[in-house]
Amino acid sequence: FTVTAVSDSGNTVSITSQNPSVCKVSDTLVSALTTGVCHLQLNAAADAIYDVATALDVSFTIGKKIQTINLTPSDSQLSIAVGSSQNFSASASSNLPVTITFDSACSQQSSPVSSAVEITRSTEGDCNVTFTQAGNTEYEAASQSTVVSFYRQNQ
What we know:
Shape: rod-shaped
Largest sheet: 4 strands, antiparallel
Number of strands: 13
Radius of gyration: 27 Å
Strand order of the largest sheet: 6-8-11-10
Mean pLDDT: 87
Distance between the termini: 63 Å
Strand content: over 45%
Structural class: mainly beta
């Protein structure tokens, strides 16, 4: 983000990072490098009329990035016939791996391959499917759920 600082005197204000491992400054552009507290110091130079201004210290917390999970299919609730199966795949906006779990009423039709699975159910009812990404030092954890309702077909 860009920081704009102006002194009462109109003299140039310099901005420096006091912890460049967390955030860095290039002219007026502040870049977050990792999570933590960013400490900036702003200084206005002296001139023939004004003395050096008292330094201003500014601190703020840099948090983890938010990630989302994208599902295929994207429906939050699906209805399919008992004995049929439904394929699911998921990806995280962080490109970190997604884990897929489902309740014991459903069974896995095929082995999960990376972030994909095929589920089925032999009786009527719902199957709750949850997609999670645990996060890491850069990204918050994310989770998304969907419900597959299995119904009996009419004869």
